[in-house]
Amino acid sequence: MRNVKLAVRMLLKTPFVTTVAVLSLALGIGANAAIYSMFDQMLLRPLPVPAPSELVNLALPGVKSGSTSCNMSGPCDVIWSYPMFRDLERQQTVLTGVAGHFSFGASLAVDDEPSTATGLYVSGSYFPVLGIQPAAGRLLGPADDEVIGANFVTVISHDFWRERFGENPNVVGRIMKINGHSMTIVGVAPRGFTGTTTGSLPQVFVPISMRGVFQTNFSGFENRRSYWIYLFGRLKPGVSMEQAKASLDGIVRPILTDVEAPLQGAMSDVTLERFKAKEMTVEPGRRGQSFVHQEAKTPLMMLFGVTGVVLLIACANIANLLLARGAGRATEMGVRLALGAGRRHLLVQLLTESVILSLAGGAASLLVAKWTLDFISSLLPPEVTSSLHFELQPSVIVFAGVLAVLTGLIFGMFPALHSTRADLISTIRAGAGQIAGGRAAARFRAALVTVQIALSMALLISAGLFLKSLVNVSKVDLGVKVEDVFTFAVTPLRAGYDSARAHVLYRRMEEELAAIPGVTAVTSAVVPLMANSNWGTDVRVQGFESGPDVDSNSRYNEIGAGYFGALGVELLDGRDFTTSDQLGTMPVAIVNETFARKFGLGKDAVGKFMGSNGNDSLTIQIVGLVPDVKYSDVKDTVPPVHYLPWRQSGRVAGLYFYVRSSLPLEQLFTSVPALMKRIDPGLPLEDMKTMPQQIKENVALDRMISILSAAFAILATLLAGVGLYGVLAYTVAQRTREIGVRMALGADGGRVQGMVLKQVGAMMLVGAVVGIGGAYALGKAAQSLLYGLEGNDPIVFLLAVLLLSAVALSAGYLPARRAAKVDPMHALRYD
Fold first, then answer.
1. What secondary structure letter does DSSP report for 367?
2. Number of C-alpha atoms within 13 angstroms, CB side, residue 218?
3. Rounded (5°) CA angle 439-451-373
4. pLDDT at 437 > cutoff 50
5. Cα 29 → chain centroid
6. In whole numbers, what is the pLDDT of the chain averaged over residues?
7. Nearest to 532 by CA among 598, 630, 433
8. What pLDDT, on a 0 to 100 scale, did the predictor assign at position 731?
């Protein structure tokens, strides 16, 4: 305690040094804590279930023929068919159970108050395998999915229970409507459990056997070529993942060979052998199943590295400040050692001061971390922010505290050792006004600044690469004009509509939306534009030879009348869809240029025939050819796409509407909900936003990486500039008498100024060379995150060198100027 009191008193005696050190550490530790919060939630944190390390994710990657339906839980390569899931569930002996799940969009109605949410179809084994207990009532079990379509029961999430029912325990037994069907609430999931997919927050859990009730014409329960279920299990005690894989492979292989291979149809012998040779993968499932784990790993690792570099630069400043402060206390240390104080005691005292300094910085860093998290939240789309926590979690506070203590110990060690190592006599004589050495400390300070320059150079170049990548993304030709377009969705089939009523509703909505003052065009589509949604199917095209292993897949969309005209797309040939393209008329399609090239249609696509959705006959006439328009992702190459009129489809579960207006789009955020309340107050609106906002969300990851890396790079450069200035100012102060002697012997101010700037140039040269090498390696590693440029772009490298050189010269100018104005007579008397 005595050491602590003395340390606080000594820190308060140098308020400038203490303030600069605390602010530097706050910025460095705060940035790291914020990125750690994201890193922890997306890549580290296990599911809140008993023994999560026993969970394993199951997949059978490889050749698949038939239909696939995948979501945020993972890629289409890892999904299973329902029959294969049940085969595995019945025959396996190495797992306590196998669980299946699949998310779906849900329209909820409680006391006639509609809302939209995410639902999760779960097998009866889902909750038992996880081993969690309900907060109220019971959870779904095996009895709830034994009979297809017979169990109208649901479990609600704890958050939904709190928000809609005020945690009322009497919620069990109540009826709520999910997608128009009355479901009995049988229980509430435990607090903190938000499903098994990072990035998805299911509010309701429904037996997987009910999918056929919620989705008419669904055939995925019997079809072995319909892949849609994600599977995981829990290892039995004493069973390793390798043993589980070997056992499960023994179950799967006979099914692939004897049952499923004969069902594969037009598949070449080579591909069929690959199909039969597929092997199980059994991977750790402690974090659940999610696309986020794969997609977020590289950018978060990179940002974590960037913030780590920022902290290193800040710590280098702290070490330099402590060295300078220690030099001023050399006489004090020498006297205390001469009076019998042990060196160990003095080391403890100095390290206590540095740790208290770093803890103060750590405390201030929590505010920086909160600001950084809020800033990150503003850069991410709502569907991501809704599933993450942007407040300071206990783990983040602990991380900041541990980082602060380690920072204080590691970067306070050398200054403490140096301050207690000097010879007593020379130390006291230095305090009496003699020119003292300290060459080791000077070299160490110079080395720290050189490292700061190198790290700053690497960060500036990396930030420049990401900013140029973002500029390239912003210049991408989308193929559509979306500046004045507002979009939203409705899904009436989830709210109890049948297909006929839904068609009537869509037509009425188009008419009434068009009547809103300022609206100049209205259209619609089943697949949202540039929203990372992909619908694909194999097609047959007139004149195109298909066969085994021939890629005949095309993305598709079902769109409304005047779709391309409303979005500012000029047809290359043919016509747009009209309201007369409806059920009972000649089936028609419009194709894009990539489709025409892939299937050999060239510019003569209009008038040709095609077939889709497994139809072997060529019954659909191509009536239009359009330029390539971005489909699901701004950065992706435009795939082959064919467009069908939704009016010719018998079942359209929901539509995305696109409304072009000559008035400010903000007005539609009030007028559209008011219109829909008049048409059907029980039908919730979904995904209301402007199309510019949709585009921004589509490239949210690029924006986040670019903006954060630029912000951290600028911060690092400023810290490096401060460090360089501090070292040069201290060096000039220490060499005042030497400079006075030089000037007394005839050196002019320009030569003295050049001497200081020469030191700047030497450190800048070495640091720049090392930093450029590091940036080159970093650019190569981050190539997958860049768009439209290489990781060694020369323009970015040159601009970064120029910028850092300007900062370095600015930091060195004032000390150099001060050195040039030294008065020789005053300097010779300098104490």
1. H
2. 19
3. 135
4. no
5. 21
6. 85
7. 630
8. 63
Residue type, 265: G
Place of tokens 């305690």: 1
Radius of gyration of the chain (CA): 34
Are the CB atoms for 594 and 558 separated by under 8 Å? Answer: no
319 CB-contact burial (10 Å; exposed 0-12 / middle 13-18 / buried 19+): buried
* Neighbour tally for 309: CB within 10 Å: 24
Mean pLDDT, residues 220-231 taken together: 92
Q: Average pLDDT for residues 583-601, to the nearest whole number?
A: 94
CB 551 within 8 A of CB 558: no
- Amino acid present at 213: V
Checking if the pLDDT of 265 tops 60, the result is yes
141: confidence class by pLDDT, cuts 50, 70, 90? very high
Say if residues 768 and 449 touch (Cβ distance below 8 Å).
no
How many residues belong to the chain? Answer: 831
Contact 525, 656 (CB under 8 A): yes
The C-alpha atoms of residue 279 and residue 403 are separated, in whole angstroms, by: 44
Confidence at 1, pLDDT banded by 50, 70, 90: low
Give the whole-number percent of the chain exceeding pLDDT 70. Answer: 86
Residue 110 binned pLDDT confidence (cut-offs 50, 70, 90): confident
Q: What pLDDT, on a 0 to 100 scale, did the predictor assign at position 424?
A: 44
Across-strand partners of 642? 556, 591
293 has a pLDDT exceeding 90: no
Strand positions, DSSP E, 43-152: 55-59, 67-68, 80-81, 95-110, 113-122, 136-137
621 Cβ contact partners less than 8 Å away, ≥ 6 residues apart: 586, 587, 588, 589, 607, 608, 609
Q: Which pair of tokens denotes residue 463?
A: 């930030």
How distant, in Å, are the alpha carbons of 4, 424, 579, 589, 623 from that of 562?
A: 76, 90, 8, 13, 13
Q: What pLDDT, on the 0 to 100 scale, is given for residue 136?
A: 95
Alpha helices in 339-388 (DSSP H): 343-379, 382-385
- Tokens 């997306």 label which residue? 42
Which residues are within 8 A (CB) of 458 and not within 5 positions of it... i.e. 6 or more apart? Answer: 309, 771, 772, 774, 775, 778
Mean pLDDT throughout 282-290? 94
Q: Identify whether the C-beta of residue 827 lies closer than 8 Å to the C-beta of residue 747.
A: no
Residue 202 C-alpha from the chain's centroid? 19
Q: Roughly what angle, to the nearest 10 degrees, separates helices 700-734 and 794-820?
A: 20
β-pairing verdict for 175-178 and 95-110: antiparallel
Contact 212, 204 (CB under 8 A): no
Q: What is the mean pLDDT of residues 289-311?
A: 85
Q: Is the distance from CB of 124 to CB of 142 less than 8 angstroms?
A: yes
d(CA 451, CA 339): 38
788: left (phi over 0), alpha (psi -120 to 50) or beta: left
DSSP state of 220: T
The structure tokens listed for 575 are 């016509």
Q: Using CA atoms of 212, 215, 219, 221 in order, give the dihedral in degrees to the nearest 10.
A: -40
